[in-house]
Predict the structure.
Amino acid sequence: MKIIHITDFHLVAPGEPLWGENPHDRLDRCLSDIAQWHSDAAFCVMSGDLTNDGDPAAYAWLKERLQSFPLKTFLMVGNHDTRDGLLEAFPNAGRDENGFVQSAHETNHGVFLFLDTLKGPVSEGEYCAARREWLTWALANANDKPVWIFMHHPPFEVGLPYMDRIKLEEPDEFTEVISTHRNIRHIFFGHVHRAAFINWRGIPCTSLPGTNHQVPLNGESVGGSYSLEPPMYGVVLIDHDKTVVHFDACLDRTPAEMA
Ligand SMILES: [Fe+2]
């Protein structure tokens, strides 16, 4: 089974630049690349910060762009999104009974959970008691099936002080809930704008760069808060005994020349 993970588009009003780049153009090219090479994927997960400031025009642009995108998509909220803005453009986005943008998707390979960690605006993440109650139910409902979790904010620090200040707050409460399930195979997250692998309490976790701008590993190496390191999307290959995550810097397909 193949799925695609892509994150942190930070779309603004169409035509407006952001941090020296065109977020619509960069996302458009990433989506075209996915459509060309991975139309056989089962689905694509977009793990939040779809917009930079919840602009309805940005959500409308994304809705229009996805009309021609061949994969089923699961849209999530990040700290730069607004629930109302996302749901106005995508009224069919999965929601729990309290209106949080979180849902479960069952496949032959197990259960995929898409969590809503939005506290906002532009802040650390939150996973309140009501959301934890839904997750407790979803994990119990999965029984002993494998579970893959997608969430915008990581529940741990990743060694980036700039982002660690705004990780998921109250991580112990979140940890307590997921520790009730013994078959969590992987946690995918966004937010940190970098490709990283973390083994957290025995659970493999991966993050991705955004499609527009990145958070430098060392701020002094760039001289600013953000950089224009290459965007990547994740190609996730799931088998009964392994999960492979490829990080594809898709905007540079320059062939290497023999010399
Ligand atoms: Fe972001």
About this structure: The helical segments are 23-37, 56-66, 83-89, 129-141, 161-164, 171-178, 219-222. The two ends are 38 Å apart (CA to CA).
